[in-house]
Design brief:
The chain is mainly α and about 130 residues long. It has helices at about 5-15, 30-45, 50-65, 75-85, 90-100, 110-120; strands spanning about 5, 25-30, 70, 105-110, 125. It has a domain at about 5-30 and about 70-130: Rossmann fold (3-Layer(aba) Sandwich), CATH 3.40.50.1010. Helix 1 (about 5-15) packs across helix 2 (about 30-45) and helix 2 runs antiparallel to helix 3 (about 50-65).
Length: about 130
């Protein structure tokens, strides 16, 4: 089985040193920006990490995404908007859901609200619920 990881699941895999579950699996280019924003928030807004720590984490994120298949949303904006409207979720979340459906992948997310909304429609799980 192949998986599509959103940024919340990727970040948790990094924090729990479970990078092996990500290798050869999928994410969206969007995750790069979302993960960058998590690092920015921790450093700039919350002051939870030093500049050196953030640079180190950014390198880990870059290396992690390097072992994954990173998909572009391409020209799927209309389809993603349709998913967003039907499921009442953000465009960001709908992009993950759409690509999971289109590529027959199981969506992996730590977002419990997203899981509730999409589980009846697609195969979805948390990081702890998958085996590789």
């Amino acid at each position: 089985m192949k998986y599509l990881f959103d940024s919340s699941a990727i970040f948790k895999a990094i924090k729990e040193n479970k990078i092996e579950v990500l290798v050869g699996n999928f994410t969206l280019e969007l995750a790069r920006y979302e993960l960058g924003n998590v690092l920015w928030k921790s450093f700039v807004l919350e002051g939870k990490a030093t500049s050196a720590e953030i640079k180190s984490l950014a390198k880990i994120v870059k290396q992690t995404l390097g072992v994954m298949n990173v998909l572009q949303i391409g020209c799927s904006e209309e389809e993603i908007l349709e998913v967003a409207g039907k499921a009442k979720i953000t465009f960001y979340d709908a992009a993950y859901v759409y690509h999971a459906m289109a590529k027959n992948l199981t969506l992996v997310t730590e977002d419990s609200q997203l899981l509730k909304k999409v589980t009846p429609k697609i195969s979805a799980s948390t990081l702890s619920g998958i085996t590789v």
